Amino acid sequence: MTYVADVKRYERIPYRRCGRSGLDLPVISLGLWQNFGGVDAFENGRAILRRAFDRGVTHFDLANNYGPPYGSAEETLGRCLAADFRAHRDELVISTKAGYDMWPGPYGLGGSRKYLTASLDGSLKRLGLDHVDIYYSHRLDPTTPLDETMGALDHLVRQGKALYVGISSYSPEATGKAATILKGLGTPLLIHQPSYSMLNRWIEHGLLDTLAAHGVGCIGFSPLAQGMLSDKYLKGVPSDSRGATGGAGGSFDRKFLAPATIAHIKALAAIARKRGQTLAQMAIAWALRDSRVTSALIGARTVAQLDDSLDACKNLKFTAKELAEIDKHAVDAGVNLWTESQSAKAM
Questions:
Q1: What is the pLDDT of residues 282-333, one digit of tens each?
Q2: Could you tell me the pTM of the whole model?
Q3: In angstroms, rounded to a whole number, what is the distance separating the alpha carbons of residues 282 and 230?
Q4: d(CA 130, CA 109)
Q5: DSSP alpha helix (H) spans, 88-145
Q6: Structural domains of the chain ordered from first start
Q7: Cis status of the peptide bond prior to 106, with omega within 30 of 0
Q8: Parallel/antiparallel/unpaired status of strands 93-98 and 132-137
Q9: Do residues 46 and 94 make contact, with C-beta atoms less than 8 angstroms apart?
Q10: Which DSSP state fits 135?
Q11: What is the spatial distance between Cα 340 and Cα 294, in angstroms, rounded to a whole number?
């Protein structure tokens, strides 16, 4: 059946300006890290993408090695772009990244000009596009000069293969340096994509201030802490959950589900119920409470799960009392796998 987009889609979600750019993003964006690979059911992923767009989600986020297998999430979105969204390409913000391993050998990962250029060429082929809207350095590569990595991003914008550039999981110091380099090249840094949730608050300790100072937007990924901030683990560990399977690339460690952490999650779930929200909805709304956060980047396994997350938009406001109560339980749980010191191990 031919896809016809919901005519009221732009009434269903708020949008925020990304830093000091001219680009608005939906407050909730859809990431294709998991559930859109070649091993997953194509029609399920397609239904999620259609539903997301019908609810005003205009931003779809990928990386070169999302799958599995590597590259297959981009292929899935490419098929959907061709079949369903061809007429809506100018309404969409498509982003992809490179930094982690994509192919064997010394030129298949990192931050070199050679790798970033070759990777984007491959991503464009899989997506069936002539350009992406945002291209990210997925991680800081300590073995490559930052000037080279940022110079490669600037080069790709000037080639017309990307409209904007971003970075992911860079420290406040490295972020400031990257933004300064890019400003000097004439290609401003648009956005930073860090992990951020009630169990992982590292961006509050300098990064958000750095982004504001440089006029850079922020899109926080894993606002549900890989599903921990949902009702999933309140009564144990489901057999099909990341807590049981380890998640994509072993990104979920069972030690994350320590008794003390589960106690905090249960307390947060009780606060969410008093707000008339699911825990997932409150977690997403909380991640957006700071205006410096442009968007929260979610994943979805089903259309129903997507709808539950997007319903966070129905209540994005918190009282001072609620925030104070949440702060008692929004404590670090050791779930940040994406810091610079952990970059060699992370997805």
A1: 999 999 999 999 999 999 999 999 999 999 999 999 999 999 999 999 999 8
A2: 0.93
A3: 9
A4: 22
A5: 113-127
A6: 9-225+289-316 (3.20.20.100)
A7: no
A8: parallel
A9: no
A10: E
A11: 22
